[in-house]
Amino acid sequence: KITDTEAIALAGTKDTDLQGLPASISDTEPRYTFFRYEHEGTGEERKSEIVFIYTCPAASKVKQKMIYASFKKVVMDTASLEGGFEVVKKLEASSPMEITPEMIEEEFQPKVEQKQGFARPKRPGKR
Fold this sequence. Notes:
By secondary structure, the chain is of the alpha+beta class. The protein has helices at 21-24, 62-81, 101-108, and strands at 31-40, 46-55, 87-93.
């Protein structure tokens, strides 16, 4: 969290699973959250990757919204350089309840592209 003196401070740490993640994020103030997501990788291996989640409730003060939005990159860079985190995915939401297990799981599923052939335009009608 960002304090009144605009310093970055750790609000706390919690062990939580994907189901309990929304409840562990403050729904009254903007927050940065780092979540270690464990999932099946390609093949049979398990992967553990870091997800950065930025939540900013609509009821937050304008000053808080501006400060949190401008500090987002600084927080991610600091976590990378000093904490050794490699952030794999970045998510943003206006409420912690928007962060669903399905949303996070979709981020790690391979995207399947559907190719469409060229659709020839229809011939104009006779006049």
